[in-house]
Specification:
The complex is a heterodimer of chains A (about 700) and B (about 100). Chain A is an all-alpha fold and about 700 residues long. In chain A, about 70% of the residues lie in helices and about 5% in strands. Among the domains of chain A are: about 220 residues, no CATH class; about 80 residues. Chain A is built from 27 helices and two strands. Chain B starts with a helix and ends in a 13-residue tail after the last helix. Classes of the chains: A mainly alpha (about 700), B mainly alpha (about 100).
């Protein structure tokens, strides 16, 4: 039965879908071998060798991703021309086969995975291009591209697998690559341990994923998406215990990978990796795997209203919480890290309220503008680093207190960063406006639905989401003003050394800038399109994504509608979709302008400033002391328990038992050795005794 | 007649055995082994009256083997003597551990 489902041919013509996965893998193999070859022990490589190997890596690394992207694009176009594209499931071999549990090594290409594949290979390719320039002076250039290729490979496995176990393979693989790339500069103890922290925190989520798969198999007898989609609504009861438990375990997995409360602590530390890595892994792709998992399991979540409410709750709390922290950070990458956590919270809110399209939509737009922000920050760090290096200054090139006024030196980067900032702040017509607004609107309309499961809770979510949107506008503007505007705060003589990023870096930034600006126009509801927000129908906007994802999520949405009734047409505070879109963009613009005005009046405090912050500022600067709390309540008790087990149980009990048995053997040996005198006579005596004993035994 | 012969044989055998166990001189121990062998020979011969001619036949075999054994044993003792300049076994315990 499984076989027949696994090899379903779609109504569109696929174009070598396996090549999408294979190209980055081959790239990894090649770059990895090149890296090993260049650094083989006992051989001193000349600088000519190194520059040649860098050239090869520069072709293979981005090239393999480009191949993937082209194949994805061809498949996408072929699906695009078909009315209702169905899923392609292609099985290559049987991975696990027991009498009643079969997992095929199969890929599934449908509308959802195609969206993810496009983002991964597209944004991934741009970031590879950026890396060529950013990492050009690194010793481990080939190693870097090997890891990056491997990451793209595993990420594609994650989104293209046709069943949860395959997704789990990719899930673990991207975790591995995340670990390797965070600890890319592993000579630095702090960076290496940041990688470890990311890996260990993620293990908790992985446990949830595994338990979820086991439970799903126990309930359904299958773990592939096709069977799930076909029989989930028959197998599971709406709001039943099984489905709630499974979805909660999957939520735990998503919480780990997508850095939500309470497992978000690894993501800020993950900024220790190279900045393009942060852009690719910790902003655009890997951290969205949790959202992908939930959208993939949307049918389960739509059957489990409690889990969905928890998903949304975790999402909105994380969004708010991380946004408050981002308001008081000074490290340019830390601000972006907390902003990423916050935006991921929005996506969780979206998928939690059943707005799966909105979640995926925000995932896509976020991939554009957050990759742009990170790469822009990378460009800033790059030139700051070079400038500070030239004047032999020990200042931190990532600290925004050392920047300011960079607009004059890096005008193009500044403009592009502003595009991304306005996008994330939710200003019309930038992409983030449409996606964020849809999530907030859907939250409100679920709160106002006829028989909403938790109306009060969803109203609270809605107001928190609005508040967070305002916070987002504030901290992002603060970030921009501190970096690019006001007086330059670098040490004397550094200014002339700060230069605009090289063309190779600016090119991906421009493409991402274009996407951040117009990327939101692919999913605008018809109501909005006809209003002022959509240029009264004159601007080229569509609600394409909504239709595109229908084959994957239509059933989940239908289940939700069956159970909660018609969604509200008003927000909890009155007013329709269009008016709230106008309100939110106006509010965002207001916040942005007031922040610019306020920030430009006040002096930014220097790094070593002694003047005291308010209590709340300190609390936010120290990230609500979450790391300290975890250290106090989780890490240390665990450490103490482990220490106890080691000292008392392991050394005290097990080691002693083992040593005791050894001592017994030793004692017996010692006793036996007493007979071993070395005197021939003794031996003869015992020989005689033995002989006598044998004789007596034979006789009797 | 047989009883007396067997009694003598047992006595000689016990003397030989005790000699091997008690004495420390390798040559004497060797002689005592010969004593044991000859005690058995005596028993064979004595019993052959009742049990048939094979007993006497065996005696020749034993004597042959004893001769070979004497050659090997004496060779070992000589080489021990060459090495240690003594044949008192008290001192020869280097292979103990």
């Amino acid at each position: 039965m499984v076989r027949s489902i696994m090899d379903s041919l779609p109504n569109w013509e696929p174009f070598y879908p396996g090549l999408v996965i294979m190209a980055p893998f081959l790239g990894f193999m090649f770059n990895g071998m090149l890296s090993l070859y260049i650094n083989r022990p006992g051989i001193k490589t000349t600088s000519q060798d190194i520059s040649r190997s860098k050239k090869i890596s520069s072709v293979i690394g981005p090239g393999s991703i480009l191949v993937s992207f082209v194949v994805v694009a061809i498949n996408g176009l072929r699906m695009f021309v078909v009315e209702h594209p169905s899923a392609l499931v292609k099985s290559y071999w049987t991975w696990i086969e027991t009498s009643n549990f079969v997992v095929e090594a199969a890929i599934q290409v449908d509308s959802l995975s195609l969206v993810m594949m496009t983002v991964i290979t597209g944004v991934g390719f741009l970031i590879h291009i950026f890396s060529m320039s950013y990492m050009e002076n690194e010793k481990g250039y080939a190693r870097y591209f090997a890891y990056l290729n491997l990451f793209v490979f595993f990420m594609l496995v994650l989104v293209m697998g046709s069943s949860y176990p395959i997704m789990f393979v990719g899930w673990e693989g991207v975790g591995l690559c995340s670990y390797l790339l965070i600890g890319y500069w592993f000579e630095d103890e702090e960076k290496a341990s940041a990688g470890k922290k990311a890996f260990i925190v993620n293990r908790i989520g992985d446990l949830g994923f595994l338990l979820g798969i086991f439970l799903l198999y126990g309930a359904l007898g299958a773990v592939d998406y096709q069977t799930l989609a076909a029989s989930a609504s028959k197998t599971f009861v709406y709001g039943g215990g099984w489905v709630t438990l499974i979805t909660l375990f999957f939520l735990l997995a998503g919480v780990g990978k997508s850095a939500q409360i309470p497992l978000f602590v690894w993501l800020p530390d993950a900024m220790a990796g190279p900045t393009p890595v942060s852009a690719l892994i910790h902003a655009a792709t890997m951290v969205t795997a949790g959202i992908y998992l939930i959208v993939r399991s949307s049918i389960l979540y739509s059957l489990a209203p409690l889990s969905s409410a928890i998903v949304a709750g975790i999402g909105v709390c994380t969004a708010f919480f991380a946004a408050t922290i981002a308001c008081k950070q000074y490290d340019i990458k830390k601000v972006l890290a907390y902003s990423t956590i916050s935006q991921l919270g929005y996506m969780f809110l979206g998928v939690g309220v059943g707005a799966y399209t909105a979640g995926v939509f925000h995932l896509v737009t976020h991939a554009f503008f957050k990759a742009l922000l990170f790469l822009g920050a990378g460009a800033v760090i790059h030139s700051m680093h070079h400038a500070l290096h030239k004047v032999h200054s020990g200042d931190d090139p990532q600290d925004m207190r050392n920047m300011g006024g960079l607009r004059k030196f890096m005008p193009i980067t500044c403009v592009l960063m502003w595009v991304a900032t306005l996008a994330i702040s939710g200003v019309w017509p930038f992409s983030g406006f449409f996606s964020k607004d849809e999530i907030i609107w859907m939250t409100g309309s679920l709160a106002m639905a006829e028989s909403s499961p938790f109306p009060l809770l969803y109203k609270l979510y809605w107001s928190m989401a609005l508040l967070t949107a305002l916070l987002t506008a504030f901290y992002m503007t603060r970030f921009m003003v501190m970096t690019f505007h006001g007086k330059n705060r670098t040490t004397e003589g550094t200014q002339p050394e700060i230069i605009e990023a090289p063309k190779l870096m600016l090119l991906p930034l421009m493409v991402l800038g274009f996407l951040s600006l117009f990327g939101g126009w692919i999913n605008v509801t018809p109501d909005l399109m006809k209003s002022a927000v959509g240029g009264f129908g004159f601007l080229p906007m569509t609600d394409w994504l909504h239709h595109w994802l229908e084959p994957v999520i239509s059933e989940s949405v239908a289940i939700q509608l069956d159970n909660v009734g018609e969604l509200g047409h008003q927000s909890p505070a009155g007013g329709g979709e269009v008016s709230w879109a106008l309100i939110s963009t106006t509010a965002a613009i207001c916040i942005v302008t007031t922040t610019i005005y306020r920030m430009s009046k006040n002096e930014v405090r220097s790094v070593g400033s002694k003047s005291k912050d308010g209590k709340i500022s300190q609390l936010l600067y120290n990230k609500w002391y979450i790391d300290e709390l975890y250290d106090q309540w989780i890490v240390r008790p665990l450490w103490r328990i482990s220490h106890f087990c080691w000292k008392k149980f392991d050394q005290g009990l097990i080691d002693r038992a083992v040593n005791f048995s050894g001592r017994i053997a030793k004692g017996i040996g010692w006793f036996g050795s007493l007979f071993h005198t070395g005197q021939v006579n003794t031996y003869a005596f015992f020989l005689t005794l033995g002989l006598l004993a044998a004789l007596i035994m034979v006789m009797s | 007649m047989v009883t007396e012969a067997l009694f003598l044989s047992v006595m000689i055998f016990i003397i030989g055995t005790l000699g091997v166990i008690i004495r420390r001189n390798a040559i004497i121990m060797f002689l005592c082994v010969e004593l044991q062998l000859n005690a058995v020979n005596l028993a064979f011969v004595a019993l052959s009256r009742h049990a048939g001619i094979e007993g006497q036949l065996f005696v020749f075999f034993v004597m042959t083997v004893a001769a070979a054994e004497a050659a090997v044993g004496l060779a070992i003792i000589i080489s021990i003597f060459r090495h240690y300049e003594t044949v008192i076994t008290d001192n020869i315990s280097f292979l103990r551990w």
